[in-house]
TrEMBL record:
InterPro entries: A_deaminase_dom (IPR001365), ADE (IPR028892), Ado/ade_deaminase (IPR006330), Metal_Hydrolase (IPR032466)
Positions that bind Zn(2+): H14, H16, H194, D275
Residues of the Adenosine deaminase domain: 9-329
Protein name: Adenine deaminase
Site (Important for catalytic activity): residue numbering on this chain: H220
Catalytic activity: adenine + H2O + H(+) = hypoxanthine + NH4(+)
Residues reported in the UniProt entry to bind substrate: D276
Cofactor(s) annotated in UniProt: Zn(2+)
Function: Catalyzes the hydrolytic deamination of adenine to hypoxanthine. Plays an important role in the purine salvage pathway and in nitrogen catabolism.
Pfam families: A_deaminase
Amino acid sequence: MKDFVAGLPKCELHLHIEGTLEPELKFELAARNGLELPYSSVAEMRAAYTFDSLPSFLTIYYESMRVLRTEPDFYDLAMAYLRRAAEQNVRYAEIFFDPQAHTSRGVPFDVVIRGLRRALMDAETQLGVRAQLIMCFLRDFQAEYAMATLLESLPYKEWIVGVGLDSDEKGNPPAKFAAVYERARQEGYLLTMHCDVDQDDAIEHIRQAVEDIGVNRIDHGVNILEDQRLVETVLARGMGLTCCPVSNGFVTGSLKAEGIRKLMDLGVRVTISSDDPAYFAAYVQENLLALHDALQLSREELAQLQRNAFEIAWLPRHVKDAYVAEVDAYVAG
Ligand code: HPA
Ligand code: ZN
């Protein structure tokens, strides 16, 4: 099964590029930028990754980003992920980035997006991995800052496929960003947002995302199982959920594998991604294997997770069809 998963053509839709910053690269970038890190070794740094909740993860996630300063830093960050992705036969990825985590510490938006964009272009020609960018707003910052970031992104609209919402969900409901999302839709961006697992008011947040904001898909979102009506809405719209089992394990103590299975059985377009693989020590392949260990998924079910992902990907129909045909050919072979 491990070989089957390794060779499966994959699609990753829930991946924070800043969450792919491995300790080795963190040290390299710190040295490049003349910064000191509070760890003496890679092992010591990894040993500090002891989160047990979303906020405890986010603290280390943001602290780590200060080594990212220049366009080549962002290029190297994205290129390192895309190389790992290519090794795991990820054929297509939609990559989140958090511009406010950088502009808030004085790194220009332009520096961030140019570095990422250049890596995406090189990965396509050099590695055969295609990827697009999704710009996330930080929900624990004010809505006005999100709106300003949205406006700042407009000159780069051709390089960004959609917008997302991440960071600390507590007290930061989707409704806070209704006007930002409305403007993003008018500008032609596709819409997703995090509805993190087991958060306060999880169901009400999912309801706002689906019914009030009208997102195209949901990141995480397994708590939707608590509301039959919302499940029916998602099914009727063919919406997808980008689930991240290993991340769930860190944030909630459970992979939420049974919930993921239930969603799959109901016919919801569930997909599996890695979220922040450098911090959770699992890229997409390891996430699929962790889920398989928990659920004994069949080959057909593992393939279906990839078909789901290509189906809900923000790509033209004929491109999705070509990727789904790759999955079908792999399973048949
Ligand atoms: N949830 C919220 N914010 C995040 C996440 C996540 O899974 N990863 C990076 N920022
Ligand atoms: Zn996430």
